[in-house]
Design a protein that fits this description.
mainly alpha
């Protein structure tokens, strides 16, 4: 049977990284004590170091810039669809009756 994927809270991840960076414990030791892999803990440390404010955003939460990009992509898609509809309409009406 498939093992259920474990989910960790943002606070848990931050505290785990703090144990390594400020607590004086080694990466392997903290990972072993918490029951996670060293690769996972190293990835969390990198994410927190790269952008502490937006590290571990959670499901569905994006950075402001990423949210803006997503909104603009949706708008471009909608405008392309409207343009294509108008092109087809102009093509139909420009043929005229036969």
């Amino acid at each position: 049977m498939k093992e259920k994927r474990r989910k960790y809270t943002r606070e848990f991840k931050i505290e785990a990284v703090k144990m390594v960076t400020k607590g004086g414990y080694g990466l392997s030791q903290v990972a072993r004590d918490l029951g996670i892999t060293t690769g996972m803990l190293a990835r969390w440390r990198k994410q927190l170091g790269d952008d502490p404010r937006y590290a571990f955003p959670g499901k569905g939460h994006l950075k402001e810039s990423e949210e803006e990009v997503r909104r603009l992509e949706r708008e471009v898609s909608r405008l392309r669809m409207e343009r294509d509809i108008l092109k087809k309409t102009v093509g139909i009406f420009s043929k005229g009756p036969k």
